[in-house]
Amino acid sequence: MQKAIDLFFKALEVLLILLLSAMAIMVFANVVLRYAFNSGMSVSEELSRYFFVWLSFVGAVVAFREHGHLGVESVVALFGRKGRLVCMILSNLIILACSMIFFWGTWQQFEINASMSAPVTGISMIWVYGIGLFTGAGLSLIALERLFRYVTGRATEEEISIFAGENLTIEQMAERT
Protein backbone atom coordinates (compact mmCIF):
# COMPACT_ATOMS: atom_id res chain seq x y z
CA MET A 1 0.00 0.00 0.00
CA GLN A 2 2.84 2.38 0.85
CA LYS A 3 4.33 1.90 -2.63
CA ALA A 4 1.03 2.91 -4.22
CA ILE A 5 0.85 6.01 -2.04
CA ASP A 6 4.45 6.92 -2.87
CA LEU A 7 3.71 6.43 -6.58
CA PHE A 8 0.63 8.65 -6.28
CA PHE A 9 2.69 11.45 -4.71
CA LYS A 10 5.40 11.04 -7.36
CA ALA A 11 2.66 11.52 -9.97
CA LEU A 12 1.56 14.65 -8.13
CA GLU A 13 5.12 15.95 -8.22
CA VAL A 14 5.23 15.33 -11.98
CA LEU A 15 1.91 17.17 -12.30
CA LEU A 16 3.40 20.11 -10.40
CA ILE A 17 6.38 20.17 -12.75
CA LEU A 18 4.09 20.09 -15.78
CA LEU A 19 1.85 22.85 -14.43
CA LEU A 20 4.80 25.12 -13.61
CA SER A 21 6.44 24.44 -16.96
CA ALA A 22 3.25 25.09 -18.93
CA MET A 23 2.61 28.24 -16.93
CA ALA A 24 6.13 29.56 -17.57
CA ILE A 25 5.98 28.71 -21.30
CA MET A 26 2.59 30.37 -21.74
CA VAL A 27 3.60 33.54 -19.93
CA PHE A 28 6.93 33.73 -21.78
CA ALA A 29 5.26 33.18 -25.15
CA ASN A 30 2.66 35.82 -24.37
CA VAL A 31 5.34 38.35 -23.40
CA VAL A 32 7.27 37.67 -26.62
CA LEU A 33 4.12 37.96 -28.72
CA ARG A 34 3.12 41.24 -27.08
CA TYR A 35 6.47 42.96 -27.31
CA ALA A 36 7.76 41.53 -30.59
CA PHE A 37 4.56 41.14 -32.60
CA ASN A 38 2.12 43.48 -30.81
CA SER A 39 -0.34 40.64 -30.25
CA GLY A 40 -0.99 38.05 -27.57
CA MET A 41 -2.82 34.94 -26.55
CA SER A 42 -5.62 35.77 -24.15
CA VAL A 43 -6.09 32.09 -23.41
CA SER A 44 -2.57 31.94 -21.95
CA GLU A 45 -3.37 34.57 -19.33
CA GLU A 46 -6.43 32.70 -18.16
CA LEU A 47 -4.86 29.25 -18.21
CA SER A 48 -1.70 30.41 -16.44
CA ARG A 49 -3.85 31.81 -13.61
CA TYR A 50 -5.75 28.54 -13.34
CA PHE A 51 -2.54 26.52 -13.46
CA PHE A 52 -1.17 28.66 -10.64
CA VAL A 53 -4.24 27.89 -8.52
CA TRP A 54 -3.79 24.16 -9.14
CA LEU A 55 -0.05 24.41 -8.55
CA SER A 56 -0.64 26.06 -5.17
CA PHE A 57 -3.29 23.67 -3.93
CA VAL A 58 -1.74 20.42 -5.17
CA GLY A 59 1.60 21.67 -3.85
CA ALA A 60 0.01 22.24 -0.42
CA VAL A 61 -0.92 18.54 -0.21
CA VAL A 62 2.54 17.41 -1.31
CA ALA A 63 4.25 19.82 1.10
CA PHE A 64 2.04 18.69 4.00
CA ARG A 65 2.99 15.08 3.40
CA GLU A 66 6.68 16.02 3.40
CA HIS A 67 6.39 18.18 6.54
CA GLY A 68 7.25 21.19 4.41
CA HIS A 69 4.84 23.74 5.85
CA LEU A 70 5.81 26.43 8.30
CA GLY A 71 6.05 25.48 11.93
CA VAL A 72 7.15 26.99 15.22
CA GLU A 73 10.04 24.67 15.86
CA SER A 74 11.67 27.00 18.39
CA VAL A 75 8.70 26.57 20.74
CA VAL A 76 8.17 22.86 20.08
CA ALA A 77 11.89 22.16 20.66
CA LEU A 78 11.49 23.34 24.27
CA PHE A 79 9.22 20.39 25.09
CA GLY A 80 10.08 16.78 25.77
CA ARG A 81 8.67 13.83 23.85
CA LYS A 82 5.19 13.99 25.43
CA GLY A 83 4.91 17.73 24.95
CA ARG A 84 5.93 17.40 21.32
CA LEU A 85 3.37 14.67 20.77
CA VAL A 86 0.67 16.87 22.29
CA CYS A 87 1.71 19.68 19.92
CA MET A 88 1.68 17.27 16.98
CA ILE A 89 -1.82 16.06 17.89
CA LEU A 90 -3.15 19.60 18.38
CA SER A 91 -1.55 20.77 15.13
CA ASN A 92 -3.08 17.93 13.14
CA LEU A 93 -6.49 18.43 14.79
CA ILE A 94 -6.47 22.08 13.72
CA ILE A 95 -5.34 21.13 10.20
CA LEU A 96 -8.03 18.46 10.03
CA ALA A 97 -10.74 20.91 11.09
CA CYS A 98 -9.62 23.57 8.61
CA SER A 99 -9.25 21.16 5.71
CA MET A 100 -12.67 19.63 6.39
CA ILE A 101 -14.22 23.11 6.43
CA PHE A 102 -12.41 23.86 3.17
CA PHE A 103 -13.73 20.64 1.61
CA TRP A 104 -17.26 21.32 2.83
CA GLY A 105 -17.19 24.90 1.53
CA THR A 106 -16.02 23.75 -1.88
CA TRP A 107 -18.73 21.10 -1.90
CA GLN A 108 -21.36 23.72 -1.06
CA GLN A 109 -20.19 25.90 -3.96
CA PHE A 110 -19.94 23.00 -6.41
CA GLU A 111 -23.17 23.64 -8.33
CA ILE A 112 -22.55 27.37 -8.60
CA ASN A 113 -19.02 26.89 -9.92
CA ALA A 114 -20.09 24.10 -12.26
CA SER A 115 -22.70 26.37 -13.82
CA MET A 116 -20.26 29.21 -14.48
CA SER A 117 -17.89 29.34 -17.44
CA ALA A 118 -14.47 30.92 -17.77
CA PRO A 119 -14.60 34.09 -19.90
CA VAL A 120 -11.99 33.12 -22.51
CA THR A 121 -11.70 29.34 -22.56
CA GLY A 122 -15.31 28.64 -21.67
CA ILE A 123 -14.40 25.76 -19.36
CA SER A 124 -16.55 25.15 -16.32
CA MET A 125 -15.20 26.99 -13.29
CA ILE A 126 -15.49 23.79 -11.27
CA TRP A 127 -12.23 22.75 -12.98
CA VAL A 128 -10.61 25.72 -11.28
CA TYR A 129 -12.31 25.89 -7.89
CA GLY A 130 -12.97 22.17 -7.61
CA ILE A 131 -9.34 21.71 -6.59
CA GLY A 132 -10.59 22.53 -3.10
CA LEU A 133 -12.19 19.10 -2.97
CA PHE A 134 -8.83 17.43 -3.71
CA THR A 135 -6.91 19.64 -1.30
CA GLY A 136 -9.43 19.38 1.52
CA ALA A 137 -9.68 15.61 1.16
CA GLY A 138 -5.93 15.13 0.76
CA LEU A 139 -5.00 17.19 3.80
CA SER A 140 -7.76 15.55 5.85
CA LEU A 141 -6.61 12.04 4.98
CA ILE A 142 -2.99 12.81 5.80
CA ALA A 143 -3.95 14.48 9.08
CA LEU A 144 -6.25 11.57 10.03
CA GLU A 145 -3.51 9.04 9.31
CA ARG A 146 -1.03 11.01 11.40
CA LEU A 147 -3.50 11.45 14.25
CA PHE A 148 -4.16 7.73 14.28
CA ARG A 149 -0.44 6.99 14.51
CA TYR A 150 0.16 9.63 17.19
CA VAL A 151 -2.73 8.54 19.38
CA THR A 152 -1.83 4.85 19.10
CA GLY A 153 1.81 5.56 19.99
CA ARG A 154 3.24 4.80 16.54
CA ALA A 155 5.00 8.12 16.00
CA THR A 156 8.66 7.53 15.17
CA GLU A 157 11.50 9.42 16.79
CA GLU A 158 12.48 10.72 13.35
CA GLU A 159 9.00 12.16 12.82
CA ILE A 160 9.05 13.84 16.23
CA SER A 161 12.47 15.35 15.52
CA ILE A 162 11.27 16.60 12.12
CA PHE A 163 8.29 18.27 13.81
CA ALA A 164 10.64 19.94 16.31
CA GLY A 165 13.04 21.02 13.55
CA GLU A 166 15.91 18.95 14.91
CA ASN A 167 16.54 17.25 11.59
CA LEU A 168 17.94 20.45 10.07
CA THR A 169 21.64 21.12 9.69
CA ILE A 170 23.15 24.38 10.91
CA GLU A 171 23.31 25.61 7.31
CA GLN A 172 19.62 24.88 6.77
CA MET A 173 18.69 26.69 9.98
CA ALA A 174 20.81 29.66 8.94
CA GLU A 175 18.96 29.84 5.61
CA ARG A 176 15.66 30.20 7.46
CA THR A 177 16.75 33.37 9.28
Automatic annotation (TrEMBL):
GO terms for cellular component: plasma membrane. One of its GO terms (molecular function) is transmembrane transporter activity. The keyword Transmembrane applies. The complex comprises the extracytoplasmic solute receptor protein and the two transmembrane proteins. Keywords: Cell inner membrane, Cell membrane, Membrane, Plasmid, Transmembrane, Transmembrane helix, Transport. This is TRAP transporter small permease protein. It is a multi-pass membrane protein. Part of the tripartite ATP-independent periplasmic (TRAP) transport system. GO terms for biological process: C4-dicarboxylate transport. Residues 23-151 form the Tripartite ATP-independent periplasmic transporters DctQ component domain. Pfam families: DctQ. Belongs to the TRAP transporter small permease family. Coiled coil: none annotated. InterPro entries: DctQ, TRAP_DctQ. It is found in: Cell inner membrane. The chain crosses the membrane at residues 12-35, 47-64, 85-106, 126-144.
